[in-house]
Structure formats: structure tokens, C-alpha cells
Amino acid sequence: MADMTQSNSTASPKTEKTGSISRFISATELDTRLLGMVGALLLIWIGFHILSGGLFLTPRNLWNLSVQTASVAVMATGMVLVIVTRNIDLSVGSILGFSGMIMGVMQAEILPQLLGFEHWATWIVTLLVGILVGGAIGMLQGSIIAFLNVPSFIVTLGGLLVWRGGTWFVTSGRTVAPMDSTFRLMGGGTSGSIGATWSWIAAIVACVAIVAAILNSRHQRRRFGFPLRPVWAEYFLVALGCVVVVGFVAVVNSYPWPVNIARNYADANGITWPDGGLFISHGIAIPVLMALAVGAVMTFIATRLRFGRYVFAIGGNPEAAELAGIKTRWVTVKIFTLMGVLCAIAAAISTARLNAATNAQGELDELYTIAAAVIGGTSLAGGVGTIAGAMLGALVMQSLQSGMVLVGIDTPFQRIVVGVVLVVAVWLDTIYRARAK
Amino acid sequence: MTEQVTPLVEMRNISISFGGIHAVENASVDLFPGEVVALLGHNGAGKSTLIKILSGAYRRDGGEILINGEDADIRNPRDAKKYGIETIYQTLAVADNVDAAANLYLGRELKTKWGTLDDVAMEASAREVMGRLNPNFRRFKEPVKALSGGQRQSVAIARAILFDARILIMDEPTAALGPQETAQVGDLVKELKRQGIGIFLISHDIHDVFDLADRVFVMKNGKVVGHARTEDVTKDEVLGMIILGKVPPGAVAGPGAVVA
């Protein structure tokens, strides 16, 4: 129609500079919103680096930051799907607490009696039980929302209280510790990292995957004669992806084990202690790998599977989705089940990291998770959101918190800042969206 | 002479009520292959409600639906699609936040051998169908939100064509469109008719549909006033049916007719 041919012609006459930037962005098909978030993140990092006198952008702090982000990042991926379908889940912190407590009791009290203390299968049985519990809770809540038509806000608000109470009830409020030593690897730490060599291998695998993905999309586009990205743009995307991957691995590999742990390790393995000290890299922490894997799987689910397509269609227009023959109720149940499973994975990470299951575990996490998803561009009006954005949002939230601790801001002010940032971020996003139209 | 042919759709004595109010009472309509039937009436006359029973959005309280002379069990939109019934709604036609190809295949996505969405193949066939329907359409990558009313309508119609609809329901299909786009939809209706598809056009404005339709059914207060072949009645007579419930000589009276 006429209006569309017009928009094509009006796009070209612009000033030279904005023209080249917009041409660059349209050629690479980069998400400008995500770019803006990366920019904001870099600003936060550099700001805290200066304010803390050079403490923020150190391998040690960045490594810790990555581990601290993992748990909320895992849950934020699920929260995207929940919010995209115009629902909300206020119970994720409590589900984390409850499934964490079940996993704690499982590995510290039940399995040692059945399998023996520190049995090799303890961690996997524990994790599976935790995932089953989390998934079952999610499925229950999802079914109430979908089939009994109770608003998700109310169901999960109830869940917030119920599962927190349940966490308390399981051990009458007692903290369960210590965790199984293999299970504890999921929490990171010196032994819960994969070391320099494996980190580089992971980096190579990731780079190969980036190249393969770009080649495949080019091949697919050519197969049907669609317009291709310019070759330089493809090279740029590959280079960008690989630089990020390699840069991240270089950072985590330059964070060495603490001296006393390295010395114990040297003694135990009969290595003579060199004069300059022994440099053993942490490498990528296992919880970070888990979070990245969850992010990849969730992105795949959201963009490549029919289920993900339905999630977004329901969010965009629930009636149209229903009339198109989508079983919207089942999709809702599946989303909340998935959310429960992700809470259990996050619970495994945080109980392993703390080396204990407590009845306060995950308190306020629901708010951080929702904030991460929303800062990451998920619209509460439904239909819009990305997994990568939500994980970046989790990183932004955690960067703010860690940064404020480093700078020495008091706890009450930390919360005030986080609250203000959340509101400002969403306000800026509203402006951006209004402009984009 | 039409008595020999089995109707594509026959809705007999359909009733539905919401909270004690009879939205549709004892209504009967039928549709033959390659025929365009207009369903006319004021807002709230019950025409949309009646047709939503056929498309599976509402469940009837009483009456029966026959498709090709056989009893049809339509409880939800999925059932309706099994009988080849596709609906193009005035407002809730598309999911705004996904692109045209995703909307065309919503609910029946093409998959690769790995079980993942075959977006490229879907986009290719979307381009092919849209190319036939609306050659100017090029905004395949953008969410449907960014499209004009006519472009959205063509996405919705393409969706129905793509799935080999035999019975097409169009609810106020041209209400949101400009004159040029309305003419385009008109051409499309004629083309679909040639292919033997039966079409229900629902409208409160007789001028939108009178020239396209073979027959008109008029509803008032949830009842069928009567029906007529468009060649047997004038626009003014049909207007009389809509406003007063008065049945002209060329029309067949229904249960809602005002006995003069």
C-alpha cells in the first residue's frame, strides 16, 4: 500500500552521521535496546571503578559478580515468559527457599542414611528431587491460574506465604548444613570453577557456535532468496561475539586461587612451592556456566520452539491466540512449571554457594527477579521481552549492589538506590518505546 | 433449485443466552458452496453472537449445526477449524507483537526435522501468499502492530487462505479500511467465491456488503427477521427489515418478523 512505499523513501534523506549509524545498525540487525543496556552497564561499571578507587573492574570482583548474578539470572529467564503472557510470579523466592530446603534435607539427612555419607550419586538425586518439587509447585500454581481463573498475582502472592511457611515447617526453622561436597560445586568457589584449560575450551566451543549460527542463518536466507546481511556485517558480528567470549574467559582466568588454598593444593599434590607463589586460575565458575546454559536453552525455547511462539502470541493478543486454536491454558501451566524448575535450579546454586539451606533463603528474590526482567526490557503489558535482556538486567542489578558494597554505601541506601534505579529504568524504557513507534 | 444441493453450513434453531438475556433465539441460517451470505442487523442484533457459535468462540444453548449435511460438534475454535471454518475478526484478528509470517501460521507452525520452528520456510510461503494477495506488502520482519489496518486485514485473510478454508466468516471486514482497500477486499471475496468457498459477511452497514452478497439474512433483537436473495429485494427494503423488522414481498419471513 501507499504508506509503506512512502516510509521507504522518507528514511533515506537524513544527516550524514545518523545515516551511517542507522545503516550500521540495520545492516548488523543489532537490538538497539540491548545495546543501550550494555552501555548503561558499562557506565555503572566504570563509575563504580572510579568511585571505589579501582576495585570494581578487577578479575576478582568481576568473577564474584558473575557468581552472585547466577541465581537471579536463572530465575529471570523464566520470569520473562511469565510476564510476557501478562502474568506475574511473586512466589519465586519462596519456591527457591522451599526447594532449597528440601534439597538440603535430602543430601544432609535422608540420602546419607540410604546411600551413605558423601555418596557419588547424592548430588544428582538431590538436584532431581529439587527440580521435581519446584516443577510440581509451579504446575500446581499454574493450574490454579489457568483452570480456576484465579489471577496469577493472587495465586503467587499466596504461594509466597505458603512456600515460605513450608520452608520453615520442614525443619522447624533449623538451618541445614553442610552440603554434599559434589553438590557444593554448583555454588562456585575455588573448587567449583573449571580452571583455565577448560575455560579456554568452553570459549572455543562458544566461538565455533557463534560462527556456525551466523553461517547457518546466512545459508537459510540464501535458500529462500531473502535479503542477506552485508558480508562485513557478518564478520563484525562474529568478531563482536568472539571478543566478548574471549574477553570474559581472559578475565576469569586471570583471577588466581587464594594463596593458602593454592599452597594446600601444592602440598597435597607434591608440587614444590615456587618463589613467586603458584598461579592457579579459577576459570569460569560452575554456577555461571549453569546460568549461561539455562539462558541458551531458554532462548532456544522462546525463539525456536512452537511453545515459545505461543507464549509471545498469547502475550500479544490472548483472544487471537485462543481463536487461532492455541491451548492457552496449557501454555500457562507449562510456563509456571518451567518457572518452578528454574527456581529449583537457582535454589541449588544458592544453597550450594551458602553451603547451607536456611529458611530465609531467597527472601526478596522475587522482587529482584521481576526487576531484572523488567529492566531487561520485558513489558508488564505483555508480549515483549527477551531472555538475554533479562539476564543482562540481573547483571545490572547485581552490579549496582556489589558496587555499592565496594564503595561502602550503607544497606538502607543500597535499597533506596536499587528502588529508584528500577523506576527510572522503566521510565526511560517507556520513553524509548514511545519514540520507537 | 438450491434444494438439491446440500448446504455447506446449516445452523438450525440456534439459541444462546447470557445471564437470562436471549442474545440469539431460535435462529436458522444456511450457506451454500461458492455463495456469499450477508448477515445484517444493528449493533446488538445478535449477528456476531450467532456467528461466534459457528466459529467456536461461544457454545450454543440449543439448536444444531450441520456441515455438509452432517451433524457438527463445535465446542471451541479448534473444532471449527477441523471443519474448515476460518474467521476473520474485525478487531482481534492478529497477535500484534509477532510478525506477519508468525501470524499466518499461528497455531499451525511449520517445523524443521529437529522439531524447531522453520521460520524461513514460513516466511517464504508467507511472502508467496501475500504476494498474490497484496503485492505491495513487504514488511515481513516487523511486528504486525506496525502495519496499517488494510495490511493487517490482508494478513488475516491470507491466514485463512493458507489453511484452505471452505467456510470463511468475515466480521465487519472493511470497517477499518479506506475505499481502495475496501475494493481490494471486495475483489478478494469474489476470487474466493470462484474457488467454491462459502462466505459469511457480517455487517451493520448494508452498503458495505449488499453488492457482494448473493443473499442477506437480517437479524433484530436476537431473532432472524427474514432472508432474501439480493436480486429479489432493494436496499431500501432490506433497510426496512433491519430497522422495522418489516418483511418485503421478495423475502422469506423468519421468527423475528413483525406481522403487519
UniProtKB/TrEMBL annotation, chain B:
Molecular functions (GO terms): ATP binding; ATP hydrolysis activity
Keywords: ATP-binding, Membrane, Nucleotide-binding, Repeat, Sugar transport, Transport
Residue ranges of every copy of the ABC transporter domain listed in the record: 9-246
InterPro entries according to UniProt: AAA+_ATPase, ABC_carbohydrate_import_ATPase, ABC_transporter-like_ATP-bd, P-loop_NTPase
Matches recorded under PROSITE patterns: ABC_TRANSPORTER_2 (PS50893)
Pfam families: ABC_tran
Superkingdom as given in the UniProt entry: Bacteria
Protein name, as recorded: Sugar ABC transporter ATP-binding protein
Source species: Rhizobium rhizogenes (Agrobacterium rhizogenes)
